[in-house]
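#struct-pred

JT: dropping the chains for the assembly here, can someone run the whole complex?
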Amino acid sequence: MNTSTELKGEIKRLLVENLMLQISAEEIGDDQPLFGPNSLGLDSVDALQLVVALDKNYGLKLSDTEVARKVMQTVNTLAEAIQKHQSLPK
Amino acid sequence: MNSRIILITGANGALGRATAQAFLDESPGNFVWFGINRRREHAEALAATNPGRCRIISLDVTMPDAWKSVVAEIVAVHQRLDVLINNAGTHDDALLAQMKWESWHGVLAVNLDGVFHGCQAVMPVMISQRNGRIVNVASLSALVAPPGQTNYAAAKAGVVALTQSLAKEVARIGITVNAVCPGYLDTEALAGLDAAAKKKALEQIPMRRFGKPKEVAAAIRFLACAEAGYITGSALKIDGGIF
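RK: done, full complex below.
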């Protein structure tokens, strides 16, 4: 299992636990939209919680609304943003 | 009872002090932060009688950056913040026809903007905790707006509306947001009234007495306790039966 797969699993567990989703982490697809039609069904309050959780768990700050919208599309986009953030020089 | 970390703004005034005392009495483990902008002599006296259980911190509630640094300091010390009491307030009464814009703006800045900034500042930590209690001190003037208080009444009505809206936003995260609406209280503000005005005020109160700060403080403490976890978005009037 590579780092990216582990990270995606971690993100899915974070979504389920922090947003109290009534599904298991395994049921969330990597490319499944988080918001909108045919999505996981998250709303603006979930987005707020997710922003806080990403900051707390990964130090990823999404203060710009447009950037947040792009990052919080799917588990894949979240994983990419986290990996990019973690690769930045500290 | 568990220990809790509480931040009270405007803690130098009678209601702020009574509220601080209520939380100090609630549990020996509670720690109360007094957010104060200017005068602090009464808060210092209260802190001196409760060594190691309170701390005074400078806070201008109209400044978002000041809020951020206060919350950051509290979280750095305790790693959490359980309760926010937005109590800081001011009034500058005048008939609207004669009210200066500075008076309008100044009262809204402290009484309404201050509550907005405070709630916004504590959101990340309370969301992260998935738990928090916010109690906003509004006023009976929010519900029964008297003449001469267009600025104050509008600000406090705004606080009630903010409370109800925010309560819905964060209800499922475990954060409750409530308001209290005190009527006439036996505080410094009342001391400014002359005897005739006091008599007139008393005649409006079915209980025929002014409220005590500790009676409002008890309600604030209750709304902030674990047992009040299903109460959110409420605006509790504490007025001796006026309304």
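JT: nice. The two ends of chain A are 26 Å apart (CA to CA). The CA atoms of residues 71 and 77 of chain A lie 5 Å apart.
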